[in-house]
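Appendix B, record 7
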Amino acid sequence: MVFALGAAVGAAIWIPAEALQPRHATGPHQGGQPLWYFPAMVGAATVLAAICASEWRMVAAGLIAAPLVLAGPTTPRGDNDGLWLFIFPLLVVLGVGLYALCAVIAHLSLRIRDRIVPRLK
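Structure tokens (predicted):
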């Protein structure tokens, strides 16, 4: 369930950021990529890892799974020089970073919950 939630959020961020961009550039330096993609993924990882702290591994995997699956057919090709293929290693690096971020956020979230919940009883 958490994996599906992460994948849905990852797809919801990927589609407007990359999939809806023009496929090919008509001139040099056209079709710039949105600068909000990486901050949106970091924000989503932070929120989802805090909410689903016990299953943070599935959050990180889900967030990056949808962009990896959608990257092939939807990544803008630019001027067709083949550089768009670097999106795959970039997404893997992003996935490793999200995995580490989710681990830290989940750990902190669980520690905070452990301190707050006993006081409420």
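Remarks on this record: Helices lie at 2-19, 37-51, 56-74, 87-120. The mean pLDDT is 85.
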